[in-house]
Amino acid sequence: MRDPYEILGLKRDADEAAIKAAYRKLAKRHHPDLHPGDAKAAERFQELNNANDLLSDSERRARFDRGEIDAEGHEVPPRGSFYRDFRGAPGGDRYSGERYAAGGSGGGDTAGFTEDDIAEFFARQFAARHGGGNFRAPGADLNYALTLGFLEAANGTSRRVLLPDGRALDVKIPPGIEDGHTIRLKGQGRPGIGGGPPGDALIEVAVAPHPFFHRVGDDVIIDLPVTLTEAVLGASVSVPTIKGNVKLTIPPGSGDGTRLRLRGRGIREGHQFVELKVAVPPGEEPALAAFLRGWTPAHPFNPRAGMEEP
Q1: Is the pTM of this model over 0.90?
Q2: Strand 142-148 to 157-162 pairing
Q3: CA distances from residue 283 to 243, 255, 286, 289 in whole angstroms, order as listed
C-alpha cells in the first residue's frame, strides 16, 4: 500500500478537517457507482478507504508517523524495547507480563502485550499513585468514514464496515440518510479502562453523486431528454426513479424546461420532479428544415423576451 498521505494528496501536517475533506472529495469521484465495471476505479476506491481509515484514527496515525506501524496498519518491529525504556526511566517501575497479570513483581519478557494491556497498566499506575485502585474511565470512540451510492442512501441498505481496530460490523443504513450524517453505534468503540463503559463507533456517511439523479431535501430531480416530436405532440415515456422505471405522460406542447411531478416517487414522502430537455436531432433533417422555413406559428412569441441589453 502506498503512503496514505500521498493517496489522499495531503501533507503530513494536515489536520482532521483536511483529511476528511480530501477523502470525501476523492471518494465521491471514484465511487464504483460512477464507474460500473471499472476494476481500477474499484481498486482506487478501496485504496482511498484504507488510507482514510488509518489517518482518521488519531492513535493509528500517530503510530504510523512514528514508524511503529506501516501503511497497512501492520506492526513494524521496534529497534529497542519501549518497556525497557520505560522501566529504566526516572520513576519507572520494573514489571513484566507475569507481574502485570498477577499483580506481583519481578523481571521477565513483555511479549504478548496489547495496546489495551498497556492502557490498563498505566491506568493502574495512575490509580495507585492517586489514592486507590478503583480508577475507571470510558473507552475512546472509533471514527470511520463510509461512502454510499446515491440509491443506497435514498432507499436504505445494510453494509459491513471494518473498524480501525479490525472488527467487522453490520450497519443498517436508514432510508434517506444525508451526506455528512453520522451514525453512532453505542458501545462499539474501544473498551473502557478499569471497568469503565466502552466508547462508541462513529460512522460518518458520504453520499456519492449519481449520473442523473440529484436531491433537494426529500425530493429527487432528474433532467429527461425528449425528442421534438414528443414535446410537441405529447407522448408516454419510461422514466427512471430511485425505485425503478415508471411511465410518464408528456402533455402536448411541452417546452424545454417543463417540470412534471411524479407524486411519492422521491425519498421517504418526497416527490420526483422531471424536467424536460428538448433534444434536436444530431444530423441534418431536410424535411424538418423545409417545414420550419414555411411555418408560421399560430401564437408567435419571443423566447428571449426580457433579456435585451439596457
Answers
A1: no
A2: unpaired
A3: 35, 21, 10, 12
CA dist 140 → 15, 67, 104, 166, 202 (Å): 19, 22, 29, 15, 11
3-state helix, strand, coil in the chain (%, to 5): 30, 20, 45
pLDDT of 86-99, one tens digit each?
444 444 444 434 33
Helix, strand or coil, per DSSP, at residue 8:
helix
Q: What's the rounded Cα separation, in Å, for the pair 142 and 201?
A: 5
Q: Sketch out the chain's domains with CATH numbers.
A: 138-211 (2.60.260.20), 213-282 (2.60.260.20)
Cβ 253 vs Cβ 228: under 8 Å: no
Integer angstrom CA distances of residue 220 from 82, 101, 249: 56, 59, 18
Q: According to the model, what pLDDT value does residue 49 have? A: 83
Is residue 151 within 8 Å of 220, Cβ to Cβ? no
Amino acid type, 161: V
Residue with cell 501536517: 13
Distance separating alpha carbons of residues 137 and 122, to the nearest angstrom = 12
**Count, residues in the chain:** 310
By the 8 A CB rule, do 101 and 111 touch?
no
Cell 496515525 belongs to residue: 61
